Amino acid sequence: MIARRVAFFGVMCGVLIAATYTGERLYVILFAFMASIVCFALLHILFTFLTFRFDQTLSRCVSVKGEEVDLRIALYNESVIPYANLAATYWLPDNLLGEREHVLEGDIPSQGRLSLEVKFPCLFRGEYAPGLTSLRVSDLFGLISIQVPFRRFSYFSPLRLTVRPRVLSFGDDAQVALVRQGRMDAQDVTAQDVSAVRDIRAFRPGDALKWVHFKLSARRRAVLVREFEGSARPKTLLLMDAGRHGREGVRALEIEDTIIEAATALAHYLLEQRAPVRLVAYGTQRYEAQGSEPRDFGPMYAYFTVAAFDGQFPLTDVLAQETAERGQHVIVVTPSLDAGLYGALLALREAGSDVAAIVVATAQERVQGVERLAAELARRGVRCKVLSPGEDFDGARSAIAAFS
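User: That's the sequence. What structure does it adopt?
Assistant: Structure tokens below.
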């Protein structure tokens, strides 16, 4: 098509020069004829833009990372003149990976349509606008083409796709939870009013071993605990590091999604077990949400879907500000582990808090020292787990659940 344009306009310029210098009527008529073709081409393109219609839909507007969504695009020609060489460019999430732009192109006869249905995976959580982005229109002769963004059309409405993070679920084996809780009883500094038993209920993570009603548990073959008047259960601080981490491109998206999924799994698990949780994250603004029931997960999940890693506050400063209460349970989810954070976590542990950390790092970063620092933290009483993007999360479930 480019060669055709070059040849046509080259000949047209040559005819114009010949008509100007020679004044021959034949050259003048030939130039007028070629100019009329150009005018017709421009009018055809204008007509196409004025009569062109399109439609685009998604099979769903809200999805979960890893699921597939269908995008349907249809281009219509409701006029009596055919459209030639139409090319509609559309965006899909795989463009985040550096894929070439997607194009739907072809001729559309009178009263015809050009349609496409494509299935694409939701690769990363977040909010996106998949679908049509620009339209290139050519004339019937292929001499002129003009490209405009679809937002220039008055009836264009961009599609919105919300991709939520995956939610990992854990088992609720009460016996395993009792063993896990046994490590925390020494740090449970919350006062309890045990003057009167209010209720007998099933064991939940966060309940002290001394509350277990052993005789009734043996009779019912289930772990049951006494609930006292005025009892209060210790609250877990779940601190997600939403600061800038220095990665770029796809690697940044993978790191951030891994952090989000680990934090989502912990928040969901604790709330399902009705354990009090306080979620704190520092982006450009401080975010906090609290809950102790499964119904409290909704606001946290909504935040995890759109959380941006653009904070400028060092995690060590955040820890100092958010952990003033001694003896609390603290879980930190972070994309980096350095000497400063290592010292802050140890200081919390020595102050009487039960501390755990999930560090998300690439394979190269693990070799460069993250694994060594994590192992040293574990040796000194701070439970620490290192995860990498792409790692089998099924294999990491038990490690994440152990922090709760």
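The domain at 236-403 is CATH 3.40.50.410 (Rossmann fold).
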